[in-house]
Amino acid sequence: MKDFFKKHSLYNLFNANGNREQDAPEEDTRPTLRRFFRLLRRKFWRLITLNMMMLPMLAPILIGVFLYLGMHKTPTANNVIFPQIFGAGLISNSTEATFLSDLFGAQFLIPAYKNTASYVGMGICAGFLVLTFGWQNIGATYILRGIVRGDPVFPFSDYAYAVKRNWKQGFFLGLIDAAILFFLGFDFMFFYNQTGTFKMDVMYFAIFAIAIIYFFMRFYIYLLQITFNLNIRKIFKNALIFSVLGFKRNIMGALGILSLTAIAVALIALFAALLGGNIAIPLILPLLYYLSFTAFMAAYAAYPIIDRYMIAPYTDGADGDGEAEDTQETTDTTPSAAD
Fold first, then answer.
1. Using CA atoms, how far apart are residues 9 and 15, in angstroms rounded to an integer?
2. Most distant CA pair in the chain, distance
3. Alpha-helical runs (H) found in the chain
4. Terminal CA-to-CA distance of the chain, rounded, Å?
5. CA separation for the pair 81, 23 (Å, rounded)
């Protein structure tokens, strides 16, 4: 009992040298579902620690939303023909004008221009997120790769090492990744609100399909970046190839992420009901585990595919049977502190 509390104490949660356990030589290391849960149990506190380290990726978004909700807002028309209908109603207060005003007169609130401080705050949050997006993903992915491979994991030293070693390419990769995510989200919402014609419906489903493909590509992008000496074009090219080659594992990873999301929503609803409708405290719960656990699912789904097509053919002295572009694995992929 004493050892149990020592293992699961807060000290162990933030102890960078507290997890030296790695796979035993005789242990089954095949990337099966059973091994996934074994790793999840064994590295649970490492993942919780990693989640705390990943919060700076989410904090700017939460602060930005808080600033936006706290802005002074002004009502505006939701339809472009509202001014004409409003003018017609002023000239002749007829039944038709009243009906059209009710039909097209819906309004919504938008931020007023005088919220200078809030705009500056949101700009700082957006800038911090975009500029550090690649570094944060690289540091987290490096730790997750070690967990998936069964290596000893030292979150703080591994995180710092990965960022230092890949800071330049990681910065530009993060900018590109953030830009793609932004434009996909913008286009999705734009075409979603423009559906109704054949052309717009086709564009909406095309953007939706591209978003799904890129969702799977992101399983591989940062793993490829930290594992191989590739330029950014080849990283995206191989990530696209692996999103097809690893279809089955990608689907399993996506199902795991969706399942965890459903569980998180259910827990929020449950605790909100128990607390009499107070949702503020239940919303904190996912901040303790969601980011690292979903990232772990993606890494566990993706890394065996990378190993099969880009590592094993060379380490086993066999020819690769995949279509991934040839590359050279980096020779120094783990810091000396973790060896």
1. 10
2. 87
3. 2-7, 10-14, 33-42, 44-69, 82-91, 95-104, 116-149, 155-165, 167-192, 198-227, 232-245, 247-274, 290-306, 312-315
4. 31
5. 67
Rounded Cα distance between 222 and 235, Å, is 8
Residue 107 one-letter amino acid? Q
Long-range contacts of residues 265-273, Cβ cutoff 8 Å, at least 24 apart: none
- Looking at the predicted structure, is the pLDDT value of residue 108 above 70? no
CB atoms within 10 A of CB 210: 14
Lowest-pLDDT choice from 21-30, 68-77, 129-138, 325-334: 325-334
Residues 6+ apart with CB under 8 A from 83: 77
Q: Rounded distance, CA 105 to CA 134, Å?
A: 44
Q: What is the pTM assigned to this prediction?
A: 0.80
Does the structure show a pLDDT above 90 at 260? yes
Question: Whose structure tokens read 């040298």?
Answer: 17
Q: Give the pLDDT confidence score for residue 339 in this predicted structure.
A: 30
- 202: amino acid identity, one letter: V
DSSP annotation string for 162-208: HHHHTHHHHHHHHHHHHHHHHHHHHHHHHHHTTBTBHHHHHHHHHHH
